[in-house]
């Protein structure tokens, strides 16, 4: 081998060695419940699964925002019966210019007897430490623990649209009553598990989109076959619509201007 060939071989090996070291370091880390968390992900929701099928949630977040300021940081407790679900809504927050990557979260709509708590949101997020910022690479290499944020729809929407300046698109999901109840209960069960045994967030396998798909497939195996949109989550609306699980006609594009002139519901 010539001297130039040996140099080229070394140059090719170096990044592979560095990548291997990063992967091994990530594999050796263990998730934790005890870190200096950012305020918005510091409080963990509690879950109690009652004998009558009701799910009692504690520390549901209900913050209020004005521009880039947080004006109140309230939490409350409430009980929810999965049998009272009438709809499930998906919000999509596009994160890149091409619309390939998105954060999605769900809003469970209960019947009108629940009053102002009838729209309950669930967002699967990274549990960031103070000063940390999210990255796609970090989301794969165990840089963040995963957390479930149970919050009012008003909190989750205004935080993104008004406080963080991200527009959202809202869609109604076309699910049976059994599917709605299963998805809600399985998210609640997983929330309870995370408070005991922390897990890593994963951009591909443990996000809100992949969890939704997993729970639908538990009830009906193969209902949502693998698709590239499981990774390129900005395309998940097309995927779900194609399979008949998303109502395109229900879509609402929500911006700061829209919220200023229209009620959320």
Would you give an account of this structure?
The protein is α+β, with helices and mostly antiparallel strands. It has one domain (31-261). Helices cover 34% and strands 30% of the residues. It has 8 helices and 9 strands. The protein has helices spanning 3-28, 39-42, 136-140, 153-163, 177-194, 208-219, 236-242, 256-261; strands at 46-49, 55-66, 69-80, 85-94, 102-110, 119-127, 145-152, 168-173, 246-254. The strands form 2 sheets. The protein has a 6-stranded antiparallel sheet, sandwiched between helices. It has a 3-stranded antiparallel sheet with strand order 1-2-3. The longest helix is centred in the first third of the chain and has 26 residues, at 3-28. The model is unreliable at 14-28 (pLDDT under 50).
What labels describe this entry?
alpha+beta; 265 residues; six-stranded antiparallel sheet; 8 helices
Secondary structure: elements and pairs:
Blueprint lengths: L2 H26 L10 H4 L3 E4 L5 E12 L2 E12 L4 E10 L7 E9 L8 E9 L8 H5 L4 E8 H11 L4 E6 L3 H18 L13 H12 L16 H7 L3 E9 L1 H6 L4
Antiparallel strand pairs: 1-2, 2-3, 4-5, 4-8, 5-6, 6-7, 8-9
Helix pairs in contact: 5-6
Principal-axes shape call: globular
Structural class: alpha+beta
The percent range for helix content is: 25-40%
Q: Order of strands across the widest beta sheet?
A: 7-6-5-4-8-9
Summarize model confidence as the mean pLDDT: 89
Low-confidence stretches: 14-28
Order of helical and strand elements: HHEEEEEEHEHEHHHEH
- Strand composition percent: 25-35%
Give the total of domains: 1
Q: Note the gap between the termini.
A: 71 Å
Query: What is the makeup of the main sheet?
Result: 6 strands, antiparallel
- The total count of helices amounts to 8
Number of strands: 9
Radius of gyration, CA atoms, in whole angstroms: 20 Å
